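Per reviewer request, we include the raw input and output of the structure prediction for the construct analysed in the revised manuscript.
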Amino acid sequence: MVLEVDEFGPPLTGTMLRTIVSLVGLAAIAAADCIPSGPASTVNAALQAGGAGAVVQLCPSAVINITDAEITFTAENQELSTEGYPEDSTRATVIIEPGSNITSAIWGRWTSGVKVLNLQVDGNRPNAAPLSGDALIEMGGGASGQVVSYNVIKNTRSWSCLHYIGSGQDYNPCRDGTVTNNTIGPCGNEGSDDAGNSLWADGVSFECTASEVSYNDISGTTDGGIVVFGAPGSHFIGNSITSSETDEGFGGFNLVDPSYNGNYSGVVISGNTIKGVGTGFFNLGIGIGSHVWSNPNDDTYFGPVTVTDNTFIGNIGFSIVVNHWSGGLTVTGNDVSKTTTPSSSFADASNCQAQVKASFNASEQLIAYLPSITGSLDLQSDFTDVPDNSTIWMCLQHPLPDSLSFAAGALNVTAAQSTVAELENFHVQLQGDGNLVGYAIDPVTSDWTPAWASNPQTSDCGSDNSLCVVTFGADGDLVEDDGAGQLWDTGTAGEGQTVVFSNASPYLEILDADGASVWTIADGVVQ
C-alpha cells in the first residue's frame, strides 16, 4: 500500500495518523505462533498477511507439503525459519510431494532482504522423480541482502539445489547475498534418462555480485558443486565439496560461463576442500576460463581472480585447469598432494581430446595453456604448461570394463545403434555394411585398429541401418539378420549360454552352461 499526502492539502488528523501507524505496525508484526505441519498455502498466507519484515516461523519437526505452488516471499525483509533456530534434525521440513509438477520449494527472486534459515528443504527427487524446471530454492534477481543459512537443501528435481539468479540489469544487479553454513546435497544423478534429458544438477548456482558463499558442506553434486556465473566481487571461502559416492561430477568450482560478459573481477576462491570419494569422482576441481567446459566460448573471460589455499583430495581428474583467460589471475598455495594416482584407477579418458588424454595419463593435476592467457599471472610452481590446446576438459567417464557378457536372449543391437560393447581401449560395433567389428583403440592417439571382424557384409541394412540386427538368442546362437534374412550365425544353438566380448584374445567367445568355451571369433561365422 502506498499512502500519498497532498503537500498543499489540510493537515492529517489524529485519527488519520493512528490509522497510518496501525497499518505500518501490522505490516511488520511477526507471526505470534509457529506454523505446524500442513500445506504450503498456510505459509504463503502468513507471508502475504505479514508484509514487509514479517518473520514466519515453522514449528520444530513440522512438515510443510508442496503440491501445487512453492512458498513465495511477498515483501522485502521477510524471513522463513524454524522456531528456535535449531541446527539438527528438528529443523522443519519443506518437501515437494510426489505427483506434483513443481520443482521449486521456495521462491525469493527480486525481493531484497529475505532470509531462509534453519530449514530442511527437500525436492524429494527419489519419490517425486526428476523434472525439468527451476531450482529447488530460487533467489536473486534485482535484489540485495538475501540470506540462505543453516539449512539442509537436497534432492532437487531439476538442475540445481540452490540458485541465485542475476538480474540482467547493470544498474540493479543481484548483490550482497549470503549463503553460509548450509548442508547441500545430494543434487542430481549422472547421465541422462531414456529420452536423452540430462539428470545432473548443481549444488549452488551463483550469479550475484559482492556476495559471500562460505562454510557450506556440499556433497553428491553431479554437475558443479558451486558454479560461479561471473559474480564479480563475490567470495567463496571455506566450503567443503564432496563427490557422490557412486556418480560422476563435472566440477567442484566452475568459472566457465559468460555471465556479466565474462567478468569475474574480484572473485576469490580460498580455503575450500574438494574431494572425490568411493567410485565417484570430479572431472575438474576448479575450471577457469572459456575453453575448459563442454561448450567452448570464444569470448575471453577476465579477472582479476584469486584462487588460493584450496585442498584437493581423492578422485579428481584435474584439480585446476586454466584455458582462455585475461585480466589477472593468482593461483597459489593449493594442495594437490592427496589426489588419487594414477587417475586411470578411478576414471577413463577414452572420449577426450588428445591433450586431455596425455595430461590424464601423466596424472597432471594443475594445468594451464599459457598461450591462451593474457594479463598478470601468478601460478604456483607445480603447474604444467601443456603444449597443445584442448577446449573440453570435462570428458572423463567411469573406468570401462575389460569384458562384457550377455546371457542368452539378452543381446539385441541394430546397426543404427551401432555400439555393441564399449570396453577399455576397445570398441565393438555393428557397422552400416553389416560387418560386426572389434576395434582396438590407442589410448593416446585414439586411432582405431581392427582386431577382428565377422566379415560377411550386406547392402540390405536399410536407409537408416536399422534392418541389420545382431542378437544372442534364447537358444544360445549368435545371429545377424539383414533386410533379406539371416546373414550369418555361430552355430551354437542348444549349447550357448553366455556371449563374452573382451578387449584381448579371444575377443569374442560363447560359453556353455559350465562356462566352457564352445566358440570363438577365430572359429569364424557360418553364412
